[in-house]
Amino acid sequence: MSRPSSPKIQVLANFCAAAAESMGYTLMRAAHSTFVKETEDFSCQVLSAEGLTVASPTTLGATWYTGLDYSRVIGRFDYRDGDICVVSDPYSGYVATHAPDLHMWRPVFHGGELVCFVGNHIHNTDVGGAVPASLSRTLTEVHQEGLRIPPMRLMRDGRLNEDLLALIETNVRLPEQNHGDLLAQIACTEVGVRKVQDIVSRFGVEGFRAGLGDLLDYAERQARAIIAELPDGEYFFADYADEDQTGGYPVRICVTLRVKGDELEVDYTGSDPQLVSSLNMPTGGNPRHSLAMVGVVYALYCLDPTVMLNFGLVRPVHAVLPEGSVVNAVKPAAVGMRSLLSNLAQTAVIGAFAQIVPERMPASPGNGLTILNVRTSTRDGRMIMASIGPVGGGAGGGPAADGTEGCGANMSFLKNTPVEINEAEVPVDILRYGLVPDTGGAGRWRGGSALEMEFRLSAPQSMVTARNRDRSRFGAWGLAGGKAGAWSTFTRNPDGPGPEELGSIDIVPCEPGDVIRLRGPGGGGYGDPLTRPVPEVISDLRRGFVTRPHAYEHYGVVLDGAGEPDIAATEARRAEIAAGRTGEETGRCTSRLAYETVWTRGRYDALTRILASIPVNWRYFVKHAIFREIGESRPQDPGDVSAVVAAFEGLRARFPELPEAAL
Where would I find the Hydantoinase B/oxoprolinase domain in this sequence (predicted)? Predict the structure, then answer.
C-alpha cells in the first residue's frame, strides 16, 4: 500500500489511540493492586519500530509518558513472535525512572515481519528494599530501593521465564499482588498485539510503518508552529522543594527557556547538586528524557489542545541536564522519590512559559501530591499493604477559569481511591475525606482547593508511608496578581492531647488508635482577587470553598447580618486593601520571599559555578556547608556574592582535599 494521505493519517491516529485505550482498560481491570486498578498509576504505548511512543491513552492512566523513548533498551535484543522484555532498573537505559516501575515491551509481527512494538508500565506497590512500599526520602543509595531488573526477557516464544518470576517473588513483600499485576501487564500486551495487527491489516505493512512516521512528523510540525509564535529570547524561572532530606535545606530547580525560531532549549543549569536522599531524577542526560519533557508537553498542550500527543511533540526541544545535578543524578544515587522533583521541574517549566505568555498560562498547581501507603494487619494477623491515596491539591487558576478542585493537577492526573474501596481492602477507618476551605490561592480566578484525608489505624506495628510530601514551606505561586496557595500539613493525632506535626517525614510508625491527618497544598490564584465578581465570591462561600473571614481579608467582600453582600462596605473594603499594597504582587508566599532575600539569584549563580567545577561526591557536602555558614544573613546588594565565595574558601582551608573551584 502507498503512503497514507493526510485524512488517513488522522484515521490511523484514531486507530492507534483506540488500541492504546484498549490496552489501558485491560491493564486496569485485570490488575490486583489498588494503585493500578484505582489510582491508575500505569501507562500503555503503541511504539514505533525504533521504540518511540506514537500513541497512548488520553482518558486513563498516568500522563507523564506521552514522550517515552524505549530506544535505549529495544536494540539490546533480537525478537521473535511471543517475546516480552522488561526493565525496572532506572540506570539501565533510563526508561524506568525508579525501581517500582516495571516497564514491559513486546514486538508486533505481521506476516512474519516485525512492524512495531507495544509497551506498558505499572507502579508496583512494593518491590522490597529497606522500607514498606520501597520508597522514602531517607534512602541514600539506589541499592536500598528494592529489586532492580536490568533489561531482560520475561517471555521467549510465548514461554514465561520462571527463573525471573521466582526472583521477583522472592524479593517483594506481597508476591501474590506483584504476580497478579505482572499477569495483567502481559494481558495488556496481548490486547495491544491483536489491536495493532488489525490496524496493519487495514493499512498494509508499508502503509502502517510510514503512517507511524507521519504521526511523529505531524506532532513535530505542530510543536514547531507553537514555538515559532513565541518571541525569541531567554526566560528564567526557579521553584523550590521544602527540603533536600528530612530536616534539610530547600532544593532549587531552575529553568532557562531559550526560544530561537521554531526550536526550544530547556536549560536546567543552576538546579541543585544531586542529593544524598532519594529525590534525584535519573535522566542519563537524555536531552528528550520523559521526566525533563513533561512540563514542556503540558505547556505545549495548554497553548494548543489540538496537538498530537506523541514523541514527535518534543523533537524540536532540547534539554540541558547537568551531570551530577538533581535532574541528572549519577549512579548509585537514590532516585525512588524522583516524582517530587519531577513535579517541581514541571512547575518551573510552566513558570518559565508564564514569563513569555502570562495571558495563556495558568498559575502553579498545588504540587506536593502525597502518595499514602499503609502497611498494617487484619484481626487474624494477615499483612495488608496498599495505597490509600493520593492526597493533593488543586490546579492553578488560569486566564479564564478557576483551578480544578483537588485534582492533583500535574501529578500525572492520578485518580483517587474511593473511601469504600479503601475500607474494604485495608483495615483502616476513614474519618474525613474532602476539600479544605481557604486553601486555593485568591485571585480573579481562584486556585483549586486542597484535599484532606483523616484516618484511624487499628492494628499494632502499622506503618504509614507518605511519599512526595512537599509545599509545607513554599506554597504554589500565583500569577498576574494572584495569591499563593495554602501550605500542606501532616499531623498525627490532631485532636488528641499532644498533636504531632510530622512535616515532610514520610515513614510514620503507628499503633492502634493513632489518627493521621494529611492536608494537601492549594493551587495558586490568577489575577487580582479584588477583581473577582462579588457573586462568584458569594458562590464560593455557599459551596464551602472559602470562609467569611477569608472572603473579607483577600477578596474584600463584606456580608451583612443576613449573609448577603453589603455592596457599599465591600467597595470601601476593596479600596482599603488596594491602598495598603506597597509593591508589585509577585504571587509568591511569604516564606519564599524571605528565602530569596537571603539566597538571591546572584548568590545561587555563584554557588552553581562552584559546585559545577568540583567532583560530584563533594557537591552535596559543600552546598550544605555553605548554607550553614551563610545562615539567614542577607546581602546588602542582591548582586553581592562575596559571602558564598568566602564560605567556600573557608571550606578549602579546612579541607585541603577539596579541589579548587571557579569563583
Answer: 9-529
Backbone φ and ψ for 109, nearest 5 degrees, come out as -110, 150
Last residue of a domain, one of 490, 508, 528: 528
Task: Report how many domains make up the chain.
Answer: 3
Query: Which regions of 21-136 does DSSP assign to beta strands (E)?
Result: 42-47, 53-55, 84-87, 101-110, 113-123
pTM (predicted TM-score): 0.94
Please answer whether residues 138 and 126 qualify as being in contact, where contact means their C-beta atoms are separated by less than 8 angstroms: no
194 lies in the same domain as 79: yes
Range of the domain at 500: 362-528
CA distances from 591 to 240, 367, 587 (A): 11, 17, 12
Three-state DSSP state, 120: strand
Last residue of a domain, one of 500, 528, 556: 528
Look up residue 262 and give its amino acid. Answer: D
Q: Which three cell numbers stand for residue 236?
A: 528564567
Quickly count: other Cβ atoms within 10 Å of residue 250's Cβ: 17
- pLDDT the model gives residue 504: 82
Return the residue matching grid coordinates 536546567: 268
Q: What is the pLDDT of residues 425-469, one digit of tens each?
A: 888 999 999 999 999 999 999 999 999 999 999 999 999 988 888
In terms of domains, do 55 and 200 share one? Answer: yes
What CA–CA distance (Å, rounded) separates 662 from 614? 9
**Residues linked to residue 260 through DSSP beta bridges, in sequence order:** 263
